[in-house]
Amino acid sequence: MFSFQPAAFVGNERRWKEDYSVLDPDVIWSKIEEGAGAKLPYKIFQTGDFRCNRTAFGFYVGNKWYPVLDEDSDSDLSVRDEFFRYLGGVHWSAPLPLLLTRLTRAAIAQPHLIRVTLGWLNRTVHRIGGWPKAIRALASKQVIPVTFVMHRFMDAEDVRPAWDMLKKGVMSDDIVIRETQERLQSCFYGMAHPESDEIVPACVQHSVLDPGENAALAQLLPLPHVRKVSAEQSLPSCGVREP
Predict the structure, then answer these.
(1) Three-state DSSP class for 108?
(2) How many Cβ atoms from other residues are within 10 Å of residue 236's Cβ?
(3) Residue 33: which domain range?
(4) What is the pLDDT of residues 55-68, one digit of tens each?
(5) H/E/C letters for each residue in 155-212?
(6) pTM of the model
């Protein structure tokens, strides 16, 4: 997995020298696609707001990346829907014998899943270049699963007023604050705040509800050496590789 986590204005203001405001989601994603060497379809699976999170599941065959599902294919969209409808509750990390037993039971109960799976497999192999190429790639271990992810956090100065207004049931007329509110409302990463027993968005936890922890981090983490680089030059540095 390659996870890209663009910087947000949180913490000590002296840390922020470059103009990170240019890091809008479309610019970030285009840079990720440029590095991946392929179009990365992210709309087929949605986790929260696309302005916050984007994920593209796929695999490399040699130097070329292919999506597991193509968001422009109606057939692949049907595969996604069937997967969540009949297999969404499957524990995929279960021991292999148990997993195979559960999948077999699902196939017996819903035999059309076999047809759906074979259709998806045939389309995927066709995208790669046909069965001979796919078999050779598998035999030579050239098929490598790779997922690309973007987590784009929000600035603390926007989160606080947005959250305060949401608590009062008020939506802002300010474009930036309104966007922040919409992203908070659809947040996929809820966290339990121990002092209030609330489930709150991660950006609220870190930007609004953790002043003590942020102050401690300011002491623990030394300020980085500041280099004079443009925001465009700093774009590729927002990536982190995860195991």
Answers:
(1) helix
(2) 12
(3) 2-60+150-241
(4) 999 999 999 999 99
(5) CHHHHHHHHHHHHCCCCCCCHHHHHHHHHHHCCCCEEEECCCCEEEEHHHHHHCCCHH
(6) 0.78
